[in-house]
Amino acid sequence: MDIETFETYSLYIGITLLIGFMGFIIWDLAKQSKAGRFGTIILFIVLGFCLLGFIIKGLLAQAIGGGS
Fold it and tell me: pTM of the entire structure?
């Protein structure tokens, strides 16, 4: 395995783990604040928008041809 392949796999695995950890943080925040079902849904929607923005930024960069 060359270094470029290793870096690509590491990037995808690391970002996936980061996204999962962010989901756990939001869930734990809802649990500790006793937000209830509706409050938990709102927390995931509102705090998930930054994650959605990150994903859209990556997709737009690939579509435009920037590649980063």
Answer: 0.68
